[in-house]
Amino acid sequence: METISTNTCFGGVQGVYKHASDVTGTDMTFALFLPAEAQDGPVPLLWFLSGLTCTHENAMTKAGAQAWAAEQGIALCFPDTSPRGEGVPDDDAYDLGQGAGFYIDATQAPWDKHFKMWSYIADELPALLGAEFPLDMDRQSITGHSMGGHGALTMAMALKGRFRSVSAFSPILNPTQSDWGRKQFAAYWGDEANWGSHDATLLMQGGGFDGPMLIDTGTDDQFWDLLGTDAFATAFASQRQQGQIRLQQGYDHSYFFISTFMEDHVAFHADALWR
Amino acid sequence: METISTNTCFGGVQGVYKHASDVTGTDMTFALFLPAEAQDGPVPLLWFLSGLTCTHENAMTKAGAQAWAAEQGIALCFPDTSPRGEGVPDDDAYDLGQGAGFYIDATQAPWDKHFKMWSYIADELPALLGAEFPLDMDRQSITGHSMGGHGALTMAMALKGRFRSVSAFSPILNPTQSDWGRKQFAAYWGDEANWGSHDATLLMQGGGFDGPMLIDTGTDDQFWDLLGTDAFATAFASQRQQGQIRLQQGYDHSYFFISTFMEDHVAFHADALWR
User: Fold this and answer.
1) What are the C-alpha distances in Å from A219 to residues A81, A222, A257, B37, B228?
2) B203 Cβ partners below 8 Å, 6+ apart?
3) Between the CA of residue A215 and those of A172, A227, B1, B237, what are the distances in Å?
4) I need a surface site. Which of A122, A242, B65, B89 has the fewest CB within 10 A?
5) Partner-chain residue, chosen from A9, A220, A259, that has the shortest CB–CB distance to B67
């Protein structure tokens, strides 16, 4: 593992690191914020999974999360959204290929060689983080934005017992019924009969999440029709899922929305992480 | 004036606007955050002047200022750092030409036609803001980063009575004795005999600022030798200037430093603006 940069930030350290990933077969970059408390021992970890086109950097610089994580004494991990580099397949569209891993393991050529973001986030990266940093891996929670909200919710519901709480900003909630989902699943998995169960609405219908859930979406989200919030809300209510879906008046899909409600989300996770 | 974008943010509106500037002879872009209180009447205004290579966008997205401005009910203006576009001279170096206006009015060709950032920030842009937005222009304060800290301090000391408080992050404090200053002043103003009095240390020696001043610089600033903090501190103490110079242990020149102390700076200005 190589340290790309470290910056003192809110009394802690915002680092960026690179490592050779066995799972993706590429170098992968991630950012990790450690609060001051990490100098004295392991701290809880909150994951932030980013959306389409993002790298590790967008949320690290624009979400304003470090202020609240420092206040709560928890670490933040910002992974990349896909494998990258020469030899890694890509597509001219912003929503397929590099920057658009969708947090699934591809099975179809040419994507199947490198696009293994599910295994990378679920297995390889947490193992590396637990070995290299002062993190209490028994205290993990997860959040994300848009495609990353899809990732956070599907991971939280599929990896039972892993995360103490889950939240999302403007998440893609029903990708099997959306152009943000069908296109990518068809490319990465091929025929619909072979699609995995990586759809938050389907997972909610199948049992939901054993812990608190918080979802924020803006009423003026310019991608509203792609998110599937209505279908998910139905499943959420039917399942009597512990948690809340909040529709925030006048907000859109941007980081201005994310930063506005970041304090709420970090405090929400801190409640679960420190319990 | 043209609206480029608006995003709801912390209950207010983060806008980006473009207008034809008479002073620079170009289109100029700026960002303005209006808190929710602006819907009910004029609010105070805090200027943030950015550093080398920045546009209106860097601080708008990375400084985390809107959270605190919303809490205090004050507006934020993020101007660009130079004129830009085809026909505007530039230099291959990052620290001269476009992105490096240094908040002065150039007198030497080829810069003298467009590089008039002093007049733009001191006169033209405030007149436009006062006419177009619900701002109380009798309540203004100013801050900035690096080159923008130089701009904030020189404006505050030269434009007597304009600003109620001044602060800066990692400011260039003695540009007439630094490679961040001498190079640009020589290009924009020519022979040293013709340089204007745009040096915070010289202005402090000449009388200082009639109000509170707050300066934060990191002890691990990678550009420490270019900032002239020592010379300014001498003048600050000699002048018995109301205010404080804080050296923050372990912090560097980055936006991770700025965002860490932004809450302090906005609260500091709010105290003066609401008095």
Assistant:
1) 26, 9, 11, 21, 49
2) B153, B154, B157, B158, B197
3) 11, 12, 37, 52
4) A242
5) A259
DSSP helix/strand/coil, B6: strand
What pLDDT does residue A275 have? Answer: 86
Distance from CA of A59 to the nearest CA of B (A): 10
The set of catalytic residues of B is: 146, 221, 253
Annotated catalytic, A253? yes
Confidence of residue B214 (pLDDT cuts 50, 70, 90): very high
In the chain, the amino acid numbered A170 is: S
Asked if B62 and B262 touch (Cβ cutoff 8 Å), the reply is no
Given the residues A146, A165, A167, A170, the one annotated as active site: A146
Strand partners, A20: A27
Strands A12-20 and A27-34: antiparallel
- A3 is written with which tokens? 């340290």
CB contact under 8 A, A64 and B61: no
As separate numbers, helices (DSSP H) first and strands (DSSP E) second, chain B gives 10, 9
CA-closest candidate to residue A156, choices A177, A164, A181, A56: A164
Q: Are strands A2-9 and A12-20 parallel, antiparallel or unpaired?
A: antiparallel
Contact A108, A129 (CB under 8 A): no
Which residues does chain A have with pLDDT short of 70?
A: none
Cα separation of A46 and A35, whole Å? 12
pLDDT of residue A136: 98
Flag whether residue A252 sits within 8 Å of chain B, measured between CB atoms. yes
Instruction: Give the per-residue pLDDT at A106.
Output: 97
pTM: predicted TM-score of the whole model, two decimal places: 0.93
φ, ψ of residue B217 in degrees (nearest 5): -140, 140
Please list every residue in chain A whose beta carbon sits closer than 8 Å to the beta carbon of residue B64.
Answer: 64, 67, 259
Instruction: Please answer yes or no on whether B260 and A64 come within 8 Å at the CB atom.
Output: no
ipTM of model: 0.88
CB A188 within 8 A of CB A111: yes
Residue B17: which of B74, B100, B65, B80 has the closest Cα? B80
The phi-psi region of residue B85 (left if phi > 0; otherwise alpha if psi is between -120 and 50; otherwise beta) is left
Number of other CB atoms surrounding residue B193 within 10 Å: 6
Count of CB pairs separated by less than 8 Å, A with B: 64
Neighbouring residues of B93: CB distance < 8 A, sequence distance ≥ 6: none
Three-point CA angle A25, A26, A30, nearest 5°: 125
Residues A162, A138 contacting (CB under 8 angstroms)? no
Helices A255-273, A65-72: crossing angle, 10 deg rounding: 10
